[in-house]
Write a structure and sequence with these properties.
single chain, alpha+beta, Diaminopimelate Epimerase, Chain A, domain 1, 18-stranded mixed sheet, 6 helices, 18% helix, 40% strand, globular
Length: 276
């Protein structure tokens, strides 16, 4: 038995940019260990696994080392695959049942709009050594449900960061969001995202981080709709709208690879054991 797996570049309109995610549409649920091993084999920041349920799809996301509670780019990639393969009619809203509740995705004017829960930060005192670990002095340090967020002096400072990933790995958070006002016209803010504790030193474009960034910049800029740019080496662009306790994230996506997980990778073919 073989299972199709698709690699999609998310939050970009061009191949080989944005954030790559693997998407595996399953006929039925699979074992957690098998999914983790597939994610480790794909070696991308996230691999998404989904299967049909009564009113949508069950959706789970795995990094190479752990399952995560929320992932934007792999959700965008999953919706893109469903629409592209006609698994889902292009006029139908995709419904995903996840560890973060019900998430939706809809095609709007060539972009896929995700509806996610907001994860606003609360200002905190900087944890010991955080400035040294990220390599810059923050103007603001906050903590969201998942991450630390640090506002830095300007876009150039964010772009030039060279964090100490070993030190960042020791903090009790999924990752660290670094952000600043954008210097380019037409863009409101920039960011980078570091999550070495979850096996991803730098995530190219992080949809879920914008569930914190949107509310943060809404407070700072006194507006609710933004154009955001993640300035990792691959880079990507998002449209972000804060709507109460929800955040709408819009992006584009490009399929770059289709393959088959062969019989050798089938959960029925062998007794799989995850070794760390």
């Amino acid at each position: 038995m073989s299972i199709e797996i698709v690699q999609v570049d998310a939050f970009t309109s061009a191949a080989f940019a944005g954030n790559p995610a693997a998407v595996c549409v399953l006929a039925s649920p699979r074992d957690d260990t098998w999914m983790q091993l597939v994610a480790r084999e794909m070696a991308l920041s996230e691999t998404a696994f989904l299967h049909r349920v009564d009113d949508g799809y069950s959706l789970r996301w795995f990094t190479p080392v752990a399952e995560v509670d929320l992932c934007g780019h792999a959700t965008l990639a999953s919706a893109h695959v469903l629409y592209e393969t006609n698994e889902l009619d292009r006029g139908t809203t995709a419904r995903f049942h996840t560890r973060s509740g019900l998430l939706t995705a809809a095609l709007r004017d060539g972009w896929i709009e995700l509806d996610f829960p907001a994860t606003p930060d609360e200002r905190i005192s900087p944890p010991p050594g955080l400035a040294d670990a990220i390599g810059a002095s923050p103007r603001h340090v906050g903590r969201s449900k998942f991450d630390y967020i640090v506002e830095l002096e300007d876009e150039n400072t964010v772009r030039k960061l060279e964090p100490d990933f070993a030190r960042l790995r020791g903090y009790d958070a999924r990752g660290v969001i670094a952000t600043a006002r954008a210097s380019a016209p037409g863009v409101d803010f920039v960011s980078r995202f570091f999550a070495p504790a979850f096996g991803v030193d730098e995530d190219p474009v992080t949809g879920s981080a914008h569930c914190c960034l949107g509310p943060y910049w809404a407070r700072r800029l006194k507006k609710t709709s933004f154009v955001a740019r993640q300035v990792s080496p691959r880079g990507g662009e998002l449209r972000v709208t804060v709507d109460g306790n929800r955040v709408k994230l819009s992006g584009q996506a490009v399929t770059v690879l289709r393959g088959q997980l062969t019989g050798a990778a089938s959960p029925e073919s062998q007794n799989l054991e995850l070794k760390t």
